[in-house]
Structures are given as C-alpha cells and as structure tokens.
Sequence to fold (375 residues):
Amino acid sequence: MNPGRQLGFLWGGVAAALLLAAPFLATPAGTALALSLPPCLFRALTGLPCVACGSTHALLALGRLDVGAALAMNPLAAAALLALVAGGLVAGVRALAGKSLPEPVRWPRWTRLLAAALLAANWAWLLAAVGCSSSPRPTAPRPTRLERPGQVTYGTSVEGRPLEVQRVGPAARTAETAKTAKTVLLFSNIHGSEVDAAPILDEVVARVTADPALASRLTLLVIRRVNPDGFERETRRNARGVDVNRNFPTGNFVVGNPADRYYGGAEPFSEPETRALAALVEKETPAAVVAIHSALKVVNYDGPAAELAKAIAVPLGYRVDAEIGYPTPGSFGTWAGRERGIPVVTLELPKYPTPEESAAAVEGLLAALGSGLSI
Fold:
C-alpha cells in the first residue's frame, strides 16, 4: 500500500473517531473530561487569550452539533475542526476506493500570508468578542453611576463600588393587586467583560413604566452591574480574580485553579458581590430571574423556566436549551434555579449586539413579562 493511501486511511480514521466521540462529548462526563485539561499557560501569565483559547468549548459545541456556538467560542478552531472531519471523511472514502491522496504541493507565498492574517484576525476576534481583552469597548465613555428612579444600593463590591438595584413598579398597591403582583429580577454583567446590557434593560424599564396594566401587576428588580469592578476592568472575574458566577454555595461547588477563568474562589460566598445578590434574592423572593450573558446566542434555563425561556427566545430566533454544554459548579442558575426551584433564564446575547438584536431582546423580555405565564 502506497504512503498516500495509508495517509488517507489515517486521516479518515481520525475523522471517524471524532464523529464517534461526539455523542460522548455531549454528555456531562465527556464535558467534564474535556474541561479537566490544564488551563492555558499564556492566559494564566498575561490574562489574555491565546489564538487557541476556546477550542475545547468549540469542540464540545460541535459534539452537540451546535455549529453556531462552536463558531462563537473560537471561529478558526471550529472551522479547522469541521474541515478536519470533512476532509478526513473524503480521504477515507478515497482510500477505501484504492485512491491515494494527492501529492503535497508547495503553497505559494500568498497562502501563507493569508494563513497568518486569519490567525491574527481570529486572535483579534477572541480579544474583542469573547471579552478577554483589556482594550476599551467600542462605545462612548460610560458614567460609572447613573441616578435612576427607585435605585438603591444593596451591597458593595470588592473595590467599594455600590451594587445598585432599581425597583420598578407602582408606588402603592391595593390589597388585591398585592396578592397577584409578581416580582421579576433582571440582571447583567455578573461577568464584567460580557455584553453591556444596560441599554436593553433601560428600554425594558421604560416600556414597563409606560404600560400601566403591566406595571400594576409587576415589580421589576433591575441590576445592570452585578460585578461593577469586573466591568470597569474589562475582566470576567471580580477584583479578587474570582468568577462571581461560580461562587454560590451549591452542591457541586469546586474551588478549582486560581489561574482558571472559572475560578470559584477559596470557598462559597467568599465574594461580597455573591453574598449581596443572594441576600437580595432571599429577601425579595422573585417569581423569576433573567440573567443576561454573552456570547452563545442561546436561551438557557434552570429550574421550572422552560416556558419563560421559550417566550424570550421567539423574537430572537434563538434555540432554548436546559443544558449550556459544560459544567457550571457554583453558578447562580444552579443555586437559585436547580436547588431552590426559582425559574432562572440565562439569555446569551452577542458580545456586541446589533440594534436589531437589542430590539429583539427587549421584545423577548417584554413578551415573557406580559405573557401571563405562571412565573
């Protein structure tokens, strides 16, 4: 057997192995195994992603046959994995038919320049879109704090910034409306480097306030910056390097590696941002919670929130999924949704949503709030 045909069988075998492994990667055990790989050394040293960061998550997304999520994690890695599988299947079929792979050719210089440009563009995309960069956001300068009607402080961040929640609802309710009124918590930027959803939440507040029928039976609690230190620093984690969304006292809490972007802290509730949010939830007992994240373009949910998630997803055209695709120990969704039975929806928007996407997100949130669902 000539070497070209042997290489075809080898390539085809690798592609077949990846296809056979896909169902296992979609299981919690497969996901946990993949995510047990050592963290990126470059990222641990610099705080920035390397060109391969996100490749493991892209592989896991492809294992779920979710090409869109894979491209969101690392476009070049996802495309390379797809090309590897497709090319391997073609090479394997050719080898079975007795044909060899074509002889290798010397690539012209422009192709090497194109490859370098693709690597650079992919890295720039990771720095900007995934939210790991320390570079400024492509937006106008933002005030650290805006005075809003009904806004109060519910805690203080590591660096002393106020944690603020805006209460939106009628100044007074009758005894009858008090029985039927629902409290819904909306929050964003528990990960500081993710989508700035404040404009979306501002529009939701304005629309609810302008609708007397909706406002009379609904109280909104709106937190635009759960992690204000991370937002100002452009980092996922808080000022102590802890992922606030992995710091809740859940049954699956793990300490993890401090160099890991998902580091959950030395112990549950070690962070003031986590303690303050949990205390607010326990005090207000919301009927439902919607958390805005980025950048998977999916509506995920925990607890009895399937119908609420579907209502939010329809205007956006997003899929609804009870599994995000990787373990989330110590997360808010697990703590409030799975362990306390509060309907929790995670709306994953792009890092920088277009005006059309932002408008669709507003419509989805309003549709869910006004739909009469049993939240």
About this structure: The first strand starts at residue 151 and ends at 156. The mean pLDDT is 82. The chain has two domains: 3-129, 151-370. The beta strands are 151-156, 162-168, 182-188, 218-223, 288-294, 298-302, 319-321, 344-349.
